[in-house]
Design a protein that fits this description.
Layout (H helix, E strand, L loop, with lengths): L2 H10 L8 E4 L2 E4 L13 H11 L15
Antiparallel strand pairs: 1-2
Length: 69
């Protein structure tokens, strides 16, 4: 592993679905994600923060009857 790959490996391991495999007519193959410019992949630590910290406070935007409404 090159020093550059080594440096980024800690980030790569937190990409959601980085080791995903898909079933094809040629057997199971690694999923290759090639659209990094438009949206990228989910990143575990950010998704965890959204889920743990922001998620509990998300509510129905049409309601005024609760803290999260």
């Amino acid at each position: 592993m090159s020093s550059l790959e080594n440096h980024f490996s800690k980030f790569r391991k937190n990409i959601v679905g980085i080791n995903a495999v898909i079933e094809t007519p040629y057997g199971n193959k690694p999923l290759i994600y090639a659209d990094w410019i438009a949206s990228g992949r989910l990143y575990g630590p950010i998704e965890k923060h959204i889920s743990d910290v922001i998620g509990p406070m998300v509510g129905n935007t049409h309601s005024e009857s609760s803290t999260t409404g």
